[in-house]
Amino acid sequence: MESTSVKALVVLKDISYRLHNRIILNRINWRLEPGQHWGVLGGNGAGKSTFLRLVRGEIWPQAGIGSRVYCLNGRREESPLAFRQASALVSSELLDRYQRRQWNLSVLETVCTGFAESVYLYEDPGSEQLQAARKALDQVGLDGKEREPLLRLSRGQIKRVLLARALVRRPRVLILDEAFEDLDHEARAEMFQVLAALAKNGVNLLYATHRQEELLPALSHVLVLENGRISRQGPRQEILPDSVQSAVSLKPGAQAGREIPRSKSPRSIVTVSQADLFRERRRVLRKIDWTVELGQSWALLGPNGAGKTSLLMLLAGELSPALGGRVTWFGNAEHSGLWQLRAKVGLVSGDLQARHKRPRQTGLDTVISGLQGSIGISASPGPEQIQAAQGWLRRLGIAGLAERAIATLSYGEMRKLLIARAMVSGPKLLLLDEPMAGLDQDAKTSMLEMVERLIKSGVSLVMVSHHAEDLPPSLTHVAELSEGRLVFQGSRSDYMKRS
Fold it and tell me: For the chain: N or C, fewer Cβ within 10 A?
């Protein structure tokens, strides 16, 4: 290896990575120099998350091929242990692990686990550590939340906690994998300022995203992964195209979706009446009165922690209102049971994705489970179930995932499977909680087209998003939550008229 390699923090030379006999990364050549800040781009399944984990030393490259060398404080070594101590990782997959395994420490305790990069506190933190943890929470805008149970927070708020957990390590290299998905606009702006300050103070950033408009100004270099290979890499101005996708807006000037004319006797898909909702003894929804009617398609808006995911779970029958509240589906005072309801109501959410991590489960199994209302296959599927699942895999352009073990899939690929899973039963009501999170631009375009067709076919829809460009243009209605209350509900055109 050339002598200049000693100056680099990380040098990857001709390394590959294989999982379940499948090549995920192939002949990677890359180096991280002091002062560089890299953006990592690529489609779903291109290998971005695996690349980041390989750089940090969480996984080992294929033996006998190429080399991975670290150099910290002038010392050259192949072991990643010192580099892992000097770096920190924030990712959607880390958040999923917290939710799946119910690691429900308080917010402050969670941040303090970052000092030893553990998931539990094996000893009480000292006063200096507590002070540093509180300072990190203040940096990410969560001061005052330190005693809250972690899993009581929204996904966007948990992402910010995990960033604070990374910051207490005072990392020399901060690695971010789709770390700003699920964050509202204000939170993203605040986090960009935090990262800009870190970069200015000498912290190397390694930042993977599907959203070119979210690439930090501080990023100096970009690499693009395609099918496990680096197709392009170099200074940012040489790699990035000039064009940036324009966003669909809900503000005045945007074209509202076509509202389906109401009949004299409108059919209610779901009606919520005077509903309060408590989660872990905390009221997260307050006096919700809302009806979704046949043919309506709703955007559900609001900042992190407003209660959007909880409201979707109420609509899905996954949660029940407090005494005095009521939810009615399809005009019936009572529904026949949760299993039957799941056949009529499709749900896609980050919480649901966190529960799908069975190593031997295939993509086809995942979609079929939507017909069985279960996590994983609960019974041997019949020919009709298999055919229906394969049909939706083809429609979404992901037939190649049918036989793949879900443990080998990227975050975005798994999200595509869950959308197919939601659609396979032919739901009358489709609930989408940040469905585009983790999807590359081609997948998002395809998904928006699919959602548009569903809206026009009469499927009722409620969709949560913090990104205007992720919302289909044919949405007819808007509901807005703030601190658990519905502060607006009505037609999209009326929403756009608000000052």
Answer: C
Q: 268-497 has which CATH code? A: 3.40.50.300
SS (H, E, C) the chain: CCHHHHHCCEEEEEEEEEECCEEEEEEEEEEECCCCCEEEEECCCCCHHHHHHHHHCCCCCCCCCCEEEEEECCEEECCCHHHHHCEEEEEHHHHHHHHHCCCCCEHHHHHHHHHCCCCCCCCCCCHHHHHHHHHHHHHCCCCCCCCCEHHHCCHHHHHHHHHHHHHCCCCCEEEEECCCCCCCHHHHHHHHHHHHHHHHCCCEEEEECCCHHHCCCCCCEEEEEECCEEEEEEEHHHHCCCCCCCCCCCCCCCCCCCCCCCCCCCCEEEEEEEEEEEECCEEEEEEEEEEEECCCEEEEECCCCCCHHHHHHHHCCCCCCCCCCEEEECCECCCCCHHHHHCCEEEECHHHHHCCCCCCCEHHHHHHHHHHCCCCCCCCCCHHHHHHHHHHHHHCCCHHHCCCEHHHCCHHHHHHHHHHHHHCCCCCEEEEECCCCCCCHHHHHHHHHHHHHHHHCCCEEEEECCCHHHCCCCCCEEEEEECCEEEEEEEHHHHHHCC
Question: Would you say domain 3-239 falls under CATH 3.40.50.300?
Answer: yes
| Domain boundaries defined on the chain | 3-239, 268-497
- Is 268-497 the same fold as 3-239? yes
pLDDT in tens, 171-217: 999 999 988 888 888 888 888 889 999 999 999 999 998 887 778 88
Query: Is the pTM higher than 0.85?
Result: no
